[in-house]
Amino acid sequence: MRQYIAAIDQGTTSTRCIIFDQQANIVANAQKEHHQIYPQAGWVEHDPLEIWECTQAVIQEVFQTSRIRPTDILAIGITNQRETTILWDPNTGKPYYNALVWQDTRTKSICDELEKEGGQDRFRNQVGLPLATYFSAPKIKWLLDHQPQLRKEAQKGNVLFGNIDTWLIWWLSGGPNKGVHITDVTNASRTMLMNLNTLDWDDEILRVFDIPRNILPHILPSSPAQPYATTSSEGPFTRSIPIAGDVGDQQAALIGQTCFDVGEGKNTYGTGCFMLLNTGQKINQSTKGLLTTLAYQIGSQKPCYALEGSVAITGALVQWLRDNLGIISKSEEIESLARTVENNGGIYFVPAFSGLFAPYWRADARGVIVGLTRYTNKGHIARATLEATAFQTKEILEAMQQDSGVTLKSLKVDGGMVVNELLMQFQADILGVPVIRPVITETTALGAAFAAGLSVQFWNDMDELRKHWKTDKTWLPQMEQKERDRQYKNWLKAVERSFNWI
């Protein structure tokens, strides 16, 4: 009987279930979008119960549309949008409030108040992160402060906190009926509450944020020596299957790209854009606005760390053109529209819709389009939209190289936007290094599958995983250095125009 690994990839806009065979090939795939909720400017929410319903739906669909049965699944890996914060009642599974999404900026006043003592890097030595609306801790505090009954319920043991991984594992393993309350080191490192050295919740930071420890999940390795739990037979898998991998989405992509050596890096192009550089067992504190984070932990091995640069709006900008402006009707139309013009027509689009992330960390920034003239048409706007992703990636790469001293010779890429060949060529041009796309671009799900497969010995070790990574296409830089410098200088001018708006 052939066996497989199932990966559940719960992202910012959709949920997928992907089945992998032992050669790391995709043999079945199902996907379902969920709603984006915008109660007011800067607020972004998801319905946690809708996400759980979507998760059940894609699991059921992947079995209905393939010849694979639940009995063929050896283990399950989870990967997820990070930082998105849920508080719920363990007795009923009912959330106390919608999930606060990583893009949400309502916690700016909390961060500003905490910055008064110690500045934005007040906790960086412990957690590797600046004080920012991006992370879970201020979101938890906001929920506890704005839902008066929550603190009382927490004291009674009636509140659980989790990011999306914790929420799904809790439901898959039984929910109110003895569901396990756990997270892994990668997701925990994004809460601003886990100490990078101890891999445990930091009591000092919990006190400052006024967050009770008893609502937090137990922190475990990304690929545990023993599975975290098994699925409930009453759930969508209909039988007990080991849940054996849990990795935040960007770290999962690092694993899926087999960036296991110090100095190897990847960039994921999704709703946001995320570049990670493996720094090994060394905690490398950034001086250039990057994040220090857990890359992964395999079994009882020492943890591996990474530097990360995050861009808030990349693929989401294409969705904005589609949904808010109606310039395109489908996201994939952006490339053909951008190809109707030879260049950006002198315009630059800085999509600081929720402020700017690395290397700036400016919550006061807002989106701008500069250089508009009567000559500008929707083709130029489409092209500037794609180029914004590449320019922001260049900013991250430059900061990363300055922090690490490592000069990248090529960039491995993955995520939904890498099918856009115009973007990939411009990315190679503006970076001045080759851009390499793997055969399997669903590296986030693949990383979760690798984590689960290592735990149950479906794959033996990282050397075996490396053998499954294959190049699909490479883009070589074609732009002259003088033109590259001119365009990047204009981009930096445009970024400055976005500052101090709020």
Characteristics:
single chain, 502 residues, alpha/beta, 7-stranded mixed sheet, 6-stranded mixed sheet, 16 helices
Report Rg. 22 Å
- Major sheet description: 7 strands, mixed
Number of H/I helices? 16
Helicity range: 25-40%
Q: How are the strands of the biggest sheet laid out side by side?
A: 15-16-14-13-19-20-21
Structural class: alpha/beta
Mean pLDDT across the residues is 93
Taken as a percent bin, the fraction of beta residues is 15-25%
What overall form do the CA principal axes indicate?
Answer: globular
Number of strands: 21
Low-confidence stretches: none
State the separation between the terminal residues, measured CA to CA.
60 Å
How would you describe what is shown here?
There is one protein chain. By secondary structure, this protein is of the alpha/beta class. α4 crosses α5 (148-155) and α12 (378-404) crosses α13. The protein has helices at residues 48-64, 108-115, 124-127, 136-146, 148-155, 164-172, 185-188, 203-209, 249-256, 315-325, 333-338, 378-404, 421-431, 443-455, 462-466, 481-497; strands spanning 4-10, 14-20, 26-33, 45-46, 73-80, 86-88, 99-100, 160-162, 182-184, 218-220, 229-230, 242-248, 265-269, 273-280, 291-296, 304-311, 348-350, 368-370, 411-414, 435-438, 471-475. It contains 16 helices and 21 strands. Helix content is 33%, strand content 20%. The strands form 6 sheets. It has a 7-stranded mixed beta sheet with strand order 15-16-14-13-19-20-21.
